[in-house]
Structure prediction request, 432 residues.
Amino acid sequence: MRPSPPLLVLLVLCGLAGLLPVLGVVPMQAWGLLVAALASLAALDALRLWRLPTPAATRALPDALAVGVPREVEVALESHRRLRVDAFDLHPTGWQADDLPRRLQLPAASIVRFRYRLLPAARGRFAFEGVQLRLHSPWRLWTGLRIAGGAQEVRVYPDFAPLARLALFSAEQASLLVGAHLRRRRGEGTDFQQMREYRTGDSLRQVDWKATARARKLISREYQDERNQQLLLVVDTGRRMLASEGGLSHFDHALNAALVVAWLALRQGDAVGLMATGAQPRWVPPRRGPGALQGLLRGSFDLQPQVVATDYLAMAEELALRQRRRSLVMIASNVRDEDSDDLLAAVRLLQRRHLVCVASLRERVLDEALAREVEDLPGAIRAGAVARYLEQRAGAHDALRRRRVMTLDVAAADLPAALVERYLAVKRDGLL
Prediction:
């Protein structure tokens, strides 16, 4: 309970009035009566505030939100007495909220609703700790803080709005939208799709001679890329993925790209699984069908990069035990020269059964530093250090390529297109 500005003003005026008896303008008893009256008034108003019931509060909020996507929240306050309150919803720290706090007049026996816009700032599990109310006493001399309503947990997922937009297009159109450059097919797919009339340019191997004899015209067999294959997405949660670019960590870029290629693979009829390495190990077994993407979202939404070193070999050993069927394993990380030996050992283990692709995220700030003009000695030293670092990093990538590992060296913004392009190339070339 705190004194309000009007009470503070009255106290100051009462203190100034204490000069009147000193100057002999009024008797001391009169000033004493004034002090006693003000004290009695403030005490009675404080008692009335203490006896005021706390309004009931409820919050209309979905259990799942998307990071970086504004959402409207509705709060309802129910009071059996007429009240004047300032309301502030105790949303998670660091989230941006508009139109808070709100000053409201609550009529007796009524429900008052207000809305505000909230911007989730990070993925994971978060809690709203109730609604904080500042109640004003009937004579406006005091204010008191109350917490109304209970705690409410929400889950914040990666922004899946781009996936919803991609769903409006075919798989090939969606691939172009994310920036993938599609190559022409080399040969035909391996799964039979349908019979159709012969078209100019069809290979003679596609002609079905029995169907041609029955129809008395050339009939071709049409094939499609093999379906029912396995894709495993491995995302690194180690310290290398803490680097930030474009307002998101490298881990968030990798997770978003993994969800894009997962969505496309599910559209192609393949099964998709996910594995997280590091301090937060996670395993989502490969599944196909409409509900598989939801399983991937639920299994990865609360993952966060940690300040730990990534053990690639332990990851490969666990994956080899969990995934027996041959799969395309796409590893999203930030490979450096000191990781080379450990990563090569992990790749050799995985290559016994799986097809491996390593996507190494490159910090764009390094390219910008190297392209900057050198004007002084510190700039020359910085440029030389960056060039040396990039050369060592390229050496680690070359070591992977010598092991016949598909290796992508891409900036974070280009990762979705690179993964989609490589996945489609694997499908079209029948490498699985």
